[in-house]
Here is the input.
Amino acid sequence: MARLPKQNELGFFEIRLESIGGLGANLAGKMLAEAGVVGAGFNGVSFSSYGSEKKGSPVKAHIRFCDINTNIRDTTPVERPHVVGIFHEALSKTINVVSGIYEDSLVLVNSTKSPEELKDKLKMTGGTIAVIDAIGISLEEENRVNMAMLGALFRLCDFLDPQTMKDVIRKSLEKKYPQAVDPALRTFERGYQEVKFQTFALPEGVSLKEFKRLDAPTLGYDTQPMGGTITNPGNSILKDLSISRAGMMPHFHEDSCIHCANCDNVCPDFCFVWDEQPDKRGKPQMFLQGIDYQYCKGCLKCVVACPTDALSSERETDGYHEEHRTPHRFNLAVNS
Here is the structure.
């Protein structure tokens, strides 16, 4: 019978998946728990926490395993995970995705960066960082990101049998989506084989043994600005939707644009920036200047609507949206 490699004071081995809506973390958590219970004989539980049920909003999936003789009476979110799976690297911009990790926790990141680069980006002091290009694999295999992440997670959790997970994938898909079984299995296998990881020692004198829950709000009666000023209103101008993109984004090719505004008509977040200029006859006309990628969530409706080759669907690369972003005028005013 399989044995858990480590347990907390309640006897649990805990996993937390950090993701956004649309990448399949909720389903991945359920399938992971099923493989541990059915295949390895553990007691297990899986549940998710999220806000609005829409693509791009933050999602957390929580999984607990314990010995068959241990009862699971704790259904609170996983605060001190032994394994963290980060389905979208950009989540680290707004969320402390590695909160509560131990000195020997495993952190899996969907990224093309090296573990050394991610260590600084995630502000980790120590632990093991694993990297898998889940988006690249899923695009090549025409499947879902969660299958590649599951493959990598099974490589890190060597107490779980990958064959059991393959049986779960087949069982879950073959009735409704039989055509998706083989791509899902290939994606899972590539995630299992292609994950790379590196362990970093903690600096001398640094410890992660203690964990303090932040019960108090960041801004309270004693810490708020003078006069109760709202420093970060939850409005559309300041909102950054870039973390909602799941690997693909539109590229704008100005030479092919006929300024028909089809893209603007279908864009749900008003990402396109226009400016009034004289046309060839000297008459005023609105000309498309570019895309404000701060508000683009990568739905790609604009690419479908474009009658020319002015917009194309491309794999997002690090730094592209900052370099090619065309800010709205109100953004320039706010930032100045």
Q: What stands out?
A: The radius of gyration is 23 Å. The mean pLDDT is 86.
